[in-house]
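Protein modeling request. Please complete all fields; requests missing the sequence field cannot be processed.
Requester role: graduate student
Desired output: 3D structure, token encoding
Chains: 1
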Amino acid sequence: MQNLDNQTIQLVLVAVVVLVMLVQTIMLLAVFFVIRKAVRSMREDLEDLRSSVAPIIYNTRELLTRLTPKIEETTSDLAVLTHSLRMQAADVRSAADEIIERVRRQASRLDTMLSNVLDAVERASVFMADAVAKPMRQISAILASAKAVVESLRTVDPAAARSQSSRAPGDNDMFV
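Delivered output (176 residues):
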């Protein structure tokens, strides 16, 4: 082997460094080409995406432009409809309150009328009872007295009949 001197070692080191730098440059070029290819692919994908999304965005924008007045009109119509429904609900409520009040008044009036009719019927029945019952009692009393007279005439001994009628059956003892 040759004599390894400083200059040879430096030369070998420089050659190794150059070789490493050459490999590094090749690697960087390879990375550069791969990244460049990836960027082109991403650009193409982005262009495809842009070409497919752009019409959707344009159509959506156009649709919103056309629908905005209709949406505003519908919103205002809904506000008017809501206001109208509130007014009608208030009218219905007031009409229902009025009808309920009328029904209450008529029920009270009907109650008063029925009470008056029932009071009149009660007074008439009391009057009829008095008108019929008094003569019936009087006729009954007259009939009872007539029966008593007939029975007293039928019996031979009025005193015996009277004493027999005042005694209980089987009571023969004398009263002292």
